[in-house]
Write a structure and sequence with these properties.
The protein is mainly alpha-helical. The protein contains three helices and no strands. The longest helix has 28 residues. The protein starts with a helix and ends in a 9-residue tail after the last helix.
Length: 92
């Protein structure tokens, strides 16, 4: 049973790490105004990250054209990830 829990926690932690990287890529690409968000790689990235970022955009409006909501989104992901116990806690 412990191995299943450890595998599940490891999977969730890895998913959060990958999702964090996708959000950072999305933020960096938003600095380039000539990125066409309708092209397949960019539209997939937008479809994956925008629902989560939109939750925070409704809380924190953009100030002076700068969107600060991704900062809160990244902090929340890192806090959730820090609360997950490592597989070493289960003896693996």
């Amino acid at each position: 049973m412990n191995s299943i829990v450890a595998l599940l926690l490891t999977t969730i932690s890895q998913f959060l790490s990958i999702y964090l990287v996708l959000i950072i890529i999305r933020i960096l690409l938003s600095w380039f105004p000539n990125v066409n968000w309708m092209n397949p790689p960019f539209s997939i990235l937008s479809q994956l990250t925008d629902p989560y970022l939109n939750l925070f955009r409704s809380i924190i409006p953009s100030l002076g054209g700068i969107d600060f909501s991704p900062i809160l989104a990244i902090i929340l992901l890192q806090v959730v990830q820090s609360f997950l116990p490592s597989p070493a806690a289960f003896g693996f």
